[in-house]
Amino acid sequence: MKVCIYGAGAIGGWLGVHLARQGCTLSAVARGATLEALQRGGLVLRQGDQEMAVSLKTIANAAELGQQDLVIVAVKAPAMADVARHIGPLLGPQTLVLTAMNGVPWWFLQGFGGSLAGTTLQSVDPCGVMARHIPTDQVIGGVVHASCSLDMPGVIRHHFGNGLILGEPSGADSPRLRDLVALLRQAGFNATASAQIQKDVWYKLWGNMTINPISAFTGATTDVILDDPLVRGFVSSVMLEAKAIGERIGIPLAQTPEDRHAVTRKLGAFRTSMLQDVDAGKPVELDALVSAVRELGGLTGVATPFTDALLGLSRVHAARLGLYPHPERGQPTRP
Asked: How many CB atoms neighbour CB 79 within 10 A?
């Protein structure tokens, strides 16, 4: 099976190493330091005291690879429009595109959402670039429950978690979904198929749409955030707004915010991915995590004052650092 990783960072690299060891012909589209590192030394995965290395073809121009059987898109949301513009040469009529990303994806309301089905979320895909360039009927949605980081470009460290949830945006139980789940299980992942992948996306979002941005503008780890009763109360208020939105689009959540806080506390002094991005000077994925929830609130008639406050504080902080478009001028501003 020909598998291309588009975004060979921590999660993409983790997936790629295991698939290559399973016998897939692995390639990657990368640039900058990651491109140089992969061309020089391949992908290296560190798990505990184990180190695994695989070789792969890595290029900057997708046209040099040609059509693939599977393309795994594992980039941060701000990079997705650029990926969509250049992914075309990798896609044949039967190519599957597995999205392994945080937040609300561009395909979220395609084949789902009741009266909102078919709606394009402007906060996620404002110009429709993703919808135009990546056919939804070739997408398999993915939710990753694992923690990985980069020791350096091309060298991934797996910390904990091994869960992958996959599903068709339409909710179909398709042969291609079952085959992909089987492949990932053979590669060593705890992969499962979902009859409603949007619910799994929403459940993960429900926890990280608050903790991620708050950690980014405070610099605090998850334990510090939840230990403060005022901040924890604010987090719970945002989560209740998102829960109400989920109920209106067909993805009710049985948990309370306190139930989810208990899950997050098990991570200990955890540095979120958005905090790591801020420290590294990388664009933050506020739109997929927070702006999309605010937009869905407007579409469903759910008031979102707490989500609005979270988004406002987060984007002012990120824009000041040049990591998010300025809310008025629409472009990053650097100090």
From this structure: 16
- Residue 209: inside a domain, yes or no? yes
Residue 326 belongs to some domain of the structure: no
**Where does the pLDDT of residue 335 fall: very low under 50, low under 70, confident under 90, or very high at 90 and above?**
very low
* Angle (CA) 2 107 324, round 5°: 100
Under the banding of pLDDT at 50, 70 and 90, the label for residue 23 is very high
pLDDT surpasses 70 at 326: no
Q: Which of 2, 204, 266, 282 is catalytic?
A: 204
Question: Catalytic site residue 57?
Answer: no
What is the span of the domain harbouring residue 204?
Answer: 199-320
Over residues 150-179, the mean pLDDT reads 96
Tell me the backbone φ, ψ of residue 288, rounded to 5 degrees.
-70, -25
Mean pLDDT value across residues 208-220: 97
Domain-terminating residue out of 163, 195, 227: 195
Whether residues 22 and 166 fall in one domain:
yes
